[in-house]
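Example (one chain per record):
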Amino acid sequence: MRHQVMVSRLKLQYCKVIIATSMVWFLIDAALLMYYTDCTTNSSNCAISTKETPSGGRDAAQKRDNHKSNPGILQRLLPKWNSPPKGPGEMGKPVIIPKDKESKSKEMFKINQFNLMASEMISVNRTLPDVRMEGCKRKVYPSVEDLPTTSVIIVFHNEAWTTLLRTVHSIINRSPRKLVKEIILVDDASERDFLGKKLEDYVAQLSTPVHVKRMGKRSGLIRARLKGANAAKGQVLTFLDAHCECITGWLEPLLTEIHKDRSTVVCPIIDVISDETFEYITGSDMTWGGFNWKLNFRWYPVPQREMTRRGGDRSLPTRSPTMAGGLFSIDRDYFYKLGSYDKGMDIWGGENLEMSFRIWMCGGTLLIVTCSHVGHVFRKATPYTFPGGTGHIINHNNARLAEVWLDTWKDFYYKINPGLDVWWIYFHSNM
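Predicted structure:
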């Protein structure tokens, strides 16, 4: 009898082993089936090597990024099984150029005044760390149904393919879909072929509407932004530069402040993306915008009185005298109520201070929203030329800024910049 019981138990154990083994093989078969189904539906992507991203490998990188933004069945069903991205620049890590390519990298640097080779090694969908303060991560914002929608306006001129698309993809990937009405790319007379029809074809396939507008001739940042604003349909205008990357949770804090008061104009914390390695470096929340009497924008430490006003809570927005100007959001109707940009200013320079003065002197409020972070590639030199020369344009814009907004305080500007008052009178008497 005891022998029969042992045999029965042994048979039961055998059955369990057989069933468990069958289940394991079933799961393996299912995984393999899903993998090859992914390769069938994305056949061009399954053959892509991670090594196909050298300088000039724009098409290969594009295919890889299309695959990354369109995961297969297995990736969608089992997202937690995916290993963390380990490609160049992922999670904001610096890119190291191989020794044998350093010489070519230096030559390519001159094209856009940043490390173009490093940028082309990085996915346009690269991952970034969440650099927000813990207090920001715990904040609860109004629902997307209650917040205003925004049109994101990006002006570019001969921008690199990868930095432009990384800007676009970061907006799409890290913004609630209902909040982004559209992305408007305004081409300020670029001369590079890939920024023509190829760009239009690429953005036409994206999940968020992206429109490409063209300036008939080189017109500069100010007029190009006005063209984008005129075409915008969102309730809020968000202006970004063409070499930015938005992080998780960047948009909701900005729109929340405008939702509270439509006369509030908001800027994110501007993080640094290294022009050498494309490392993502968190910016300080302890600085605000100011200016010197040459009318150059400058960052200064947030004074104690502003810290006291916020009760020592650094997650609350900072009231800032001026803004850097490259990245900000403003209610569309309020933008035009203020008079939009000064159309008498040329190309670029001074428009950020002009807009800042306009906001504060016309009843508005300018905030740096410390819970919003956007990275920006800061360059040591500009790759662009301007009609008449950079100095001529900036002198014109700053003198106009002083004449319009500074009243008697303009004397400080002219004393620091001797001769410009005579130049201003001469310039306008000969127009």
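Caption: The longest strand covers residues 365-377.
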